Amino acid sequence: MTAPRVQLATLPTPLVRAERLESALDAGPLFVKRDDLTGFGVAGNKARALEFLIGAALAEEADVFVTAGSPSSNFCAATALAATVVGMDCDLLFPGAPPPTTSVNVELARAAGARLLFEATATRDDLNRAVVAHADSLRSQGRRPYAVPRGGAVPVGALGYAEAARELAEQCDGAGFRVETVVVATGSGGTQAGLVAGQVGFGLPGRVTGASVSRPIHGMAEHVLGTARACAATAGLAQAAAADVDLRDARGGGFGVVSAEDAASARLALEREGLLLDDYYGAKSMTVFRALLAAGAPTPAVFWHTGGVAAALTSLTRGAA
Ligand SMILES: Cc1ncc(COP(=O)(O)O)c(C=O)c1O
After folding, report:
1. How close is the Cα of 141 to the center of ligand 1, in Å?
2. Which residues' Cβ are closer than 6 Å to ligand 1?
3. 44 Cα to the center of ligand 1, angstroms
4. Domain limit, last residue, from 101, 126, 152
5. How many folded domains does the chain comprise?
6. CB of 281 within 8 A of CB of 215?
7. Would you give the end-to-end CA distance of the chain in angstroms?
């Protein structure tokens, strides 16, 4: 892939056999793709997207990176850190007032020197428009902004997971098995879009299922497919079809609201494999993984651990309060 890229993550991340999970779920072989270990701050999956987004921003000679999210956003914190290590300013837009209790991700972004712009919009839904407007206003002041929507779910960001699909394919080949089922958490959709583009383009076998944790699956499937196709076009890869996008509704009671099943999923992962799963992404995608296996999904199966370590530790601390 020739797209500009800045090295941030430590790759490849491990692909680990999960034998205690196999005995608990009575299914296998099962593997965990450890993208909680991408090794750049606590960026998890977002480190892969940012390698290409920061690469593109530098190639365009941008001097300020602009994005947005909720105060819990892993992407915002990871972006602030990535911008600072390449010497770029970072403006982060948040909806509403600062939350009454701060969060690890907000403080990490602040520590990395980002400008935190609260009250940018009334709700999360308006944030992407506010990013465009903020970039326009910076431009009118003579700055050179590089602006991306929430989660970095744009074709350039998805390149990170197109490469990750190639990485998984190589690891499975090296270990001598053909993967049948892959489950990943889907929020803004960039991660799954990249995986779909890379799966088709690099010949990763099996089915990639996205656990949609915050958005209804209907519009989301089209969004993921559109981003996957644009990503494939950027990378010169074969085009995905609608059938390549599989999404399950994992929202339950809402974004970050865990059901009893989700709590059981997080406990299982912690107690059996020493994995930290957060309430927003990890626990819900593990619930989908368990449900697919219980319904007879073919194995070998891979649970893609996307990170979320900051929130996972925070909810453990709250549970103890
Ligand atoms: C820990 C974690 N997992 C999964 C996702 C979902 O990735 P995407 O927004 O690319 O769908 C995110 C997004 O912020 C995340 O922080």
Report:
1. 33
2. 44-45, 74-75, 151, 153, 185-192, 281, 306-308
3. 8
4. 152
5. 2
6. no
7. 48
The H or E element containing residue 15 is strand 15-17
**What is the rounded CA–CA span in Å between residue 159 and residue 198?**
8
Residues 60 and 204 reside in one and the same domain: no
pLDDT in the model for residue 311:
94
Q: Which pLDDT belongs to residue 1?
A: 75
pLDDT at 220: 97
Q: What is the pLDDT of residue 321?
A: 46
Answer yes or no: pTM beyond 0.90.
yes
All residue ranges of the chain with pLDDT < 70 are: 319-321
Q: What is the span of the domain harbouring residue 280?
A: 15-44+154-320
Q: What is the CATH number of the domain that holds 25?
A: 3.40.50.1100
Residue 189 CA: which ligand 1 atom is closest? 11
